[in-house]
Amino acid sequence: MDNILYLVLPCFNEEEVLPETSERLRVKMNGLIKQNKIDEKSRVIFVNDGSKDRTWNLIREFHEKDKLFGGINLSRNVGHQNALLAGLLTVREYADMVISMDADLQDDIDAIDEMVEKYLDGTDIVYGVRSSRKKDTFFKKVTAEGFYKIMNTMGANTVFNHADYRLMSKRALDGLSQYGEVNLFLRGIVPMIGYPTDVVYYERGERFAGKSKYPLGKMLSFAVEGITSLSTRPIRMITTLGFFIFLVSIGMLIYSLIRHFTGATIVGWTTLMVSVWAIGGLILLSLGVVGEYIGKIYLETKMRPRYIIEQFLNDKD
Ligand code: UDP
Ligand code: MG
After folding, report:
1. Which among 31, 108, 120, 203 is most buried, taking Cβ atoms within 10 Å?
2. 226 is a domain residue
3. Residue 136 Cβ < 6 Å to ligand 1
4. Is residue 221 part of a domain?
């Protein structure tokens, strides 16, 4: 039987939730193994993303007590996306399918059954999609949904309300490993891989314990990263804007000439001030957007490693 399932959970300062998470996952995994849906060589791998608390100690303890659990210790904090990537690319050689999920139990672990079912039916990528956000605060809901909408209008095509809870087959992961970009935005890259895909709906729960590691500021910069690493549409928008402003300026030229020849040349100071500020603002904004892309090129040409693994604990047999 070759349905070895690996779960990958990035963890950053998650000491408060890990005991509960590991306990629930142990029950879930053992259940699936008993039902013969997954191989007994299936594992749960926690990726410690440079936590400052006892997270890595806990992971080591889980590993010593039960070989179901393994861990990857990164050399420092590299952020959720890169930590996830480290996990996915490390376990892909041992697994037939890999599910990534958050460590805080916000992703309903009962959706794993359905994901595995779909994999067994021949689907390579199964997206976990939130059916509702009842448990999120109003603010989180509005900002998070706005995030997906902005992303899509800016040309970064992502699956609506899908975070990083998904199943990927080994060959889909092999595909992913060929994307060498440093500015990695998994949610945008995975749909580009292709292969048969499907979705599973689940209810997003509350964080079991601890605080969100994604405050608004981080979320905004995540959106900018996502857009500028996936699409060049903002640059196109600037070009379009520039073109329209050029049209307006021709209109202004004709208008001023008419005013000049009809003798009414005392043009308002207000208009002048407004236009100077408006154009100045637009130029700075446009430069900023172009700068974002140049910054990306700069980082890509350096080809820095996306993560460094300090230690990998896994009893694969
Ligand atoms: N995370 C991480 N590195 C970071 C920030 C977060 O590995 O620098 C992990 C975190 O431990 C959690 C997941 O990413 O498992 C999602 O983070 P969180 O639950 O704080 O985000 P939210 O659900 O509030 O968007
Ligand atoms: Mg969370």
Report:
1. 108
2. no
3. no
4. no
